[in-house]
Amino acid sequence: MIVPSAVDEELAAILDRELTRQNSTLQLIASENFTSPAVLAATGSVLTNKYAEGYPGKRFYGGNQFIDEAEDLARRRVTALFGAEHANVQPHSGSNANLATCLALLEPGDALLGMRLDQGGHLSHGQAVNISGRWYQGVTYGVTRSDERIDYDQVRDLAREHRPKLLIAGATAYPRHIDAEAFRQIADEVGALFLFDAAHYAGLIAGGAYPNPVPLADVVTFTTHKTLRGPRGGCILCREQHGAAVDKAVFPTLQGGPLEHVIAAKAVAFFEAAQPEFRAYATQVVANAEALARALSAEGFRLVSGGTDNHLVLVDLRPFDAELTGKAAQEVLDRAGITTNKNTIPYDPRSPFVTSGLRLGTPAMTSAGMGAEEMGSVAGLIARTLRGRDDEAEVAAVRDEVAALCSKFTPYPTLGGHAGDHAG
Ligand code: DSN
Fold this sequence. Notes:
The chain has two domains: about 40-275, 3-Layer(aba) Sandwich (Aspartate Aminotransferase, domain 2), CATH 3.40.640.10; about 275-405, Alpha-Beta Complex (Aspartate Aminotransferase, domain 1). The strands form four sheets. The chain has a seven-stranded mixed beta sheet with strand order 4-10-9-8-7-5-6, with helices on both faces. The two termini are about 20 Å apart. The protein has helices at about 10-25, 35-45, 65-80, 95-105, 130-135, 150-160, 180-190, 200-205, 240-255, 260-275, 275-300, 325-335, 365, 370-385, 390-405, and strands at about 25, 55, 60, 85-90, 110-115, 135-140, 165-170, 195, 220-225, 235-240, 300-305, 310-315, 340, 340-345, 355-360. Strand 7, helix 7 and strand 8 form a beta-alpha-beta unit. By secondary structure, the protein is α/β, with parallel strands linked by helices. The chain binds D-serine. The site of D-serine (DSN) has 4 residues, from loops.
């Protein structure tokens, strides 16, 4: 692999520092992962040089015969992987995939019903600050106070009251399975279309560790870089009847030239996710999240909804330490080499910039080879850091232990200047 150091030492040094960070600290952000060298190579391939507005067989520029093959391969692989009728692999991101879905199915001013951002939803599900809430009438549902699970009665009541044209399931910080069947029934009752945003779950679904919403939803969107372990980007799966509208919404309505190097890398990720090893990986991601949840509970943390069914846990820090905010926890954990993100918890009294919660996920460290035993160690290191957060010597001691642990689970042991294998 040609590395920038040959021409640009300044950038090469930055890349090297980031590689060292990824190799030597714990990556617990639930939406992140470590791609394979094959995905990295496709992302860095000559396909980045080509303009290809349009779709395979219908491009606006010449020279796209091989680009067409790559995009067709990605489409074939992803429809087979999820059992979908139609795929669009061009969205640059999950937000673009969701906006394109709205452009395909709705008129400005139509109502859509999605999950509250502060209870685990996403900006692009109808929040007022996002285009999905500015162009459309965004209505939101949440979780119950009692068990902190989606309040399906509230979803039904709001659907009956507002008659949304689009009902959206999907979350960024919800540790439980989402009942796609319940959403389908509610959508049918009020005559809504049903979008399942599977960004967080796509890899688990592909690996058989999370129920597949594709047979139930009109449209399923997802990002390719989270549990699916592909390049950064988005994807839309839909029923054949919506295929033409979805394709038109992605191009020419929303996007211009597709990122064909990323689409090639998506094809690689779809291939990898169809292999038997990926099923083992997805199962281990969930087992690791369960192990992390148990170990954190034993350390005195309260888990939102009492635990997890998927790849993430949402920690309510207040019972552990009433003074400790998510912001302060994230900052001191960063100093200890443990990368996490602060997160609101349901009915959080603190602002989204401060929060009472911390979101932790297992996809990345599972790719690096960690198992349930290491999750116990990780929980212990988190607890020690947060208990000793005013003691810099203790934080430094944890940082050394984190580095020692990570040295046995290095995602890219041979990448500094050369492509190499990683532990996943
Ligand atoms: N930023 C993503 C996440 O962390 O869940 C959502 O878009």
